[in-house]
Write a structure and sequence with these properties.
The chain is an alpha/beta fold. The protein folds into 4 domains: 52 residues, no CATH class; 157 residues, Alpha-D-Glucose-1,6-Bisphosphate, subunit A, domain 3 (Alpha-D-Glucose-1,6-Bisphosphate, Chain A, domain 3, 3-Layer(aba) Sandwich), CATH 3.40.120.10; 233 residues, 3-Layer(aba) Sandwich (Alpha-D-Glucose-1,6-Bisphosphate, Chain A, domain 3); 112 residues, TATA-Binding Protein, CATH 3.30.310. 39% of the residues lie in helices and 20% in strands. The strands form 4 sheets. Strands 1, 2, 3, 4, 5, 6 and 7 form a 7-stranded mixed beta sheet that branches. Helix 4 crosses helix 7 and helix 11 runs parallel beside helix 12. The two termini are 41 Å apart.
């Protein structure tokens, strides 16, 4: 013991600090070590939080808070991850290669360069994208360059002080995100590096390539092919949510024949502090308030929003019933409309392609697929699963993720989806219709679907596990006025699903509630769905929403 601080803990922190190439995190760790050595309980607790465990490389890669230590995102951890991934690629590919992209978050460019140098030093041909770019461009580049793997340094829509390390595989994975067992194999290599090597013993090289703008130009060209030949004039607002979407999205919209978007001026440039939003996620309350105000002032017809790395899309439409005058469409609403559009395209061309959605997304897409006699698949949450469906033509997940062009990108793509949605609205305008009438036609043909989500954010992540355990031990028999008819537990696998911490509660009348921990944030998430296909079509949506509202109240009590 040293003034109350365990020697092993201090030794681990000092060893980490002494190999850290980042002056900021070195200084931060020195301050903690000094305070812990002097007996500060808070400093000791903080060191334990950082050194008693480490961020695990899983199917979402790495994601966490920027700070020193193995349980945080920093240059030491990222360099170890790069070296482990390099070892995996050398083991599995005869001529291993990788393309690396990064967004505008703090340290993203540094982590990307570290990765390129470590890859080159390990004998992996490395290509670094020319500047900060959206995640969909990196996902496209994996297929475009036909490389063994891709890395995107991003934390997507996480809080400002987070960053992440997202990995794609080429070869048989065709540019999709990693899944098991690759994640475990990469993690094993990373652990070996972390325990057996210091950073200065890892070979580095500046002999990597930096891609030119041709890859961006090709992404734009391929995306524009989704648009109609002519577009009805539309006035729309665009926000990049302080991220990297503006340049590429704007060029795509203009090349497709759409007007210059009205921009949310304070949110268009990349800013890792995300100063105008509490969370840089269009789903979060308040995140789109500036877009609403801008659209009202401009008299716009539509709002298009990307999250900071532009792999997600949010859409808002005028609605006088809302205090802001605008209503953000849910991910299920956008996903269903784009799915209907995809099915119509397939029908017109006579092509057969599969539709897919994550298991927590609305069941509406399954009904669309059945009506058009198309294959359909439910998948586990995450586009690492959606993108791997055989013969996929369209896929989505309710968390604002849409894949409208699987031949080009095998991940959600908020820019391609934005163009497809603009094209849909444009076509409706050209035909003398609008989104509201289009939605009414859907309700008449397929029934009305409503959904909601309850998220319980926690500071103590053990609460999530205890809540899931409680629900398994004493499952509900009724929610609101609806009896529970069955409960599917995915924990040991179910049908073709891999084991996952998901409970699916089916209710009388066909409604359902799904409970699962978030894979990227300290949240418990509950998904609520209801559908009404009987009665006058114009009343169905309100009837479905009434069921969802009742279930939401019951769910908040259930998971409290």
């Amino acid at each position: 013991m040293n003034g109350g601080a365990p020697e092993a803990l201090l030794d681990a922190a000092i060893a980490w600090r002494d190999q850290d190439p980042d002056a900021e995190t070195r200084a931060e760790l020195t301050t903690l070590v000094d305070a812990a050595s002097a007996g500060s309980e808070s400093a000791i607790a903080e060191l334990r939080s950082r050194f008693d465990s480490r961020l695990v490389f899983g199917t979402a890669g790495l994601r966490g808070e920027l700070a020193a230590g193995p349980n945080r995102m920093n240059r030491v951890l990222v360099t170890q991850a790069a070296a482990g991934l390099a070892a995996y690629l050398v083991e599995h590919f005869d001529s291993p290669s990788i393309v690396i992209g990064y967004d505008g978050r703090k340290n993203s460019s540094i982590f990307a360069q570290d990765t390129a140098e470590i890859m080159a030093g390990a004998g992996v041909r490395a290509i670094l994208l020319p500047r900060m770019l959206p995640t969909p461009v990196l996902a496209f580049a994996v297929r475009h360059f036909d490389v063994s793997a891709g890395v995107m340094v991003t934390a997507s829509h996480n809080p400002p002080n987070d960053n992440g390390y997202k990995v794609y595989l080429g070869g048989a994975s065709h540019g999709s995100q990693i899944v098991s067992p690759a994640d475990a194999e990469i993690e094993a290599h990373i652990s070996k590096v972390a325990t057996e090597r210091t950073l200065d013993s890892l070979p580095r090289s500046a002999e990597y390539d930096t891609a030119d703008d041709a890859v961006v130009e090709e992404y734009i060209r391929r995306t524009v092919e989704l648009a109609p030949a002519t577009a009805a004039p539309l006035s729309y607002v665009y926000t990049a949510m302080h991220g990297v979407g503006l340049e590429v999205a704007r060029r795509v919209f203009l090349a497709a024949g759409f007007a210059e978007p009205v921009l949310v001026a304070t949110q268009v440039q990349p800013d890792p502090a995300f100063p105008t939003v509490a969370f840089p996620n269009p789903e979060e309350p308040g995140a789109m308030d500036l877009a609403y105000a801008t659209a009202t002032e401009a008299g716009a017809q539509l709002i298009i929003a990307n999250d900071p790395d532009a792999d997600r899309l949010a859409v808002a439409v005028p609605d006088s019933a809302e205090a802001s005058g605008w209503r953000r469409l849910s991910g299920n609403e956008v996903g269903t409309l784009l799915g209907w559009r995809a099915a119509e395209k397939l029908s017109r061309t006579g092509r057969i392609g599969a539709l897919a959605a994550s298991v927590v997304s609305s069941p509406a897409l399954r009904f669309i697929a059945a009506r058009y006699d198309l294959p359909y698949s439910d998948t586990l949450t995450g586009f690492k699963w959606v993108s791997r469906v055989d013969d996929l033509a369209y896929g989505y997940e309710e968390a604002l993720g849409y894949l409208v062009d699987p031949d080009k990108v095998r991940d959600k793509d908020g820019i391609s989806a934005a163009l497809d949605f603009l094209a849909l609205v444009s076509e409706l305008e050209s035909a003398g219709s609008n989104l509201a009438e289009h939605q009414a036609r859907f309700d008449a043909e397929f029934g009305a679907f409503a959904s909601s989500q309850v998220s319980v954010r926690v500071t103590d992540t053990s609460v999530i596990g205890s809540t899931m355990a409680r629900l398994r031990q004493t499952p509900p028999t009724v929610l609101g006025s609806l009896a529970v008819t069955s409960i599917d537990d995915f924990v040991n696998g179910l049908d073709d699903f891999a084991p996952s911490d998901i409970l699916r509660i089916s209710l009388q009348g066909g409604s359902r509630v799904i409970v699962r921990p978030s894979g990227t944030e300290p949240k418990l998430k509950v998904y609520i769905d209801a559908a009404v296909a009987e009665g006058p079509a114009r009343l169905r949506r309100a009837a479905a929403q009434t069921i969802v509202d009742e279930l939401e109240q019951a769910v908040r009590v259930l998971v409290a």
